[in-house]
Write a structure and sequence with these properties.
Layout: H1 3-23, H2 29-43, H3 46-59, H4 66-77
Length: about 80
């Protein structure tokens, strides 16, 4: 992974974690995961989604918090 790819992946990880932090107060974990996945699917550019999915596959979600990792895993499974 080049330094530029790492930097952009780190930014996407931070963004995914920020979205997950927003949903953290949701008492139903599945609703939170679905909300995060839905947000990423609706709002993120396809290139961003492709990059975070590749990062997830390559690094097993390293750096993603639990909710973000679960949402990315759900998107990866689709």
């Amino acid at each position: 992974m080049t330094a530029q790819n790492h930097d952009s992946s780190a930014a996407l990880v931070k963004m995914a974690n920020d979205i997950a932090d927003y949903f953290h107060s949701e008492p139903d974990r599945q609703v939170a995961v679905n909300g995060i996945a839905s947000h990423i699917q609706r709002v993120w550019d396809p290139r961003m989604r492709k990059k975070i999915l590749a990062y997830y596959a390559e690094r097993k979600g390293e750096g993603l918090n639990d909710l973000a990792r679960s949402a990315i895993a759900r998107l990866a499974a689709e």
